[in-house]
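User: I'm new to structure prediction. If I give you an amino acid sequence, what do you actually give back? Let's try with this one:
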Amino acid sequence: MIRGLVALQMDFQQREAGANPRLGWLVLMLGAVLLAGVLAEYAEVDAAVAAARSRVEEAQRATPRGTQARSQDKGDNAQAVKSESIVREQLSAPWGALFAEIEGAAHEDVAMLSLQADPMTRSVRISGEARNFTALMAYVRRLEATAAMADVRLAGHEVRQQDPRRPVVFTLSATWAAR
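Assistant: Good question. You get back a string of structure tokens that encode the predicted 3D arrangement of the chain. For your 179 residues, that looks like this:
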């Protein structure tokens, strides 16, 4: 049998010297107030968007096909429809497939610094840095082999002479292949 067992007392909640629990509650309350403000702002913006959509729908229903509305209202409606179409096109683009294909072509000798994709024109622009020109050209070939990219072209490149490793900074342009 074990004799002389000592009760072990552990304090799992250490407090710093001079820590004030009221300060924590104050920060929590301030965060709650800020959250309420953000939620109220979100509700206002959401209501404004819903009102704008309903105005566009009312205008479309109120204007018979054979008649002409006032030119300014017609221009406003056309602009709203065009904007909505652009947003719908951007949201429905197969972003996941594009990102997966570009990520699949990645290599440790090439670092992608920026990606600009426009689903309306189906154009993609990639800027990056490669360890050397051979690694850059291998990256271009891997991108050309993907299903999401076509017509991959080296738009520009420059060897950084001031860097002792002499990396190649590049810009590629490509066409985003439709699926």
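You can read the tokens as a compact description of the fold. Here is one thing that stands out. The first strand starts at residue 110 and ends at 118.
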